[in-house]
Specification:
Blueprint (H helix, E strand, L loop, with lengths): L1 H8 L20 H10 L5 H8 L3 H5 L1
């Protein structure tokens, strides 16, 4: 609200949403990850990361 007030006060009455960056594209590895989980849903993130040659942080996203 404060930001809008500042914009209106300065003469900017545009209420349209500003363009935002798009959502990141889904990884091509997602179907592979799903298949691995379908085969064994007890796998840990570390095991999936190793199987997909990714980091655990990438898997958790």
């Amino acid at each position: 609200c404060e930001d809008w007030f500042k914009r209106f006060r300065s003469g900017d009455f545009d209420t349209d949403d500003k363009k935002r960056s798009e959502r990141p594209k889904t990884s091509r590895r997602t179907p592979i990850c799903k298949r691995l989980l379908d085969e064994d849903d007890t796998q840990t993130q570390d095991q999936l990361a190793e199987a997909l040659n990714m980091t655990r942080q990438d898997i958790s996203k």
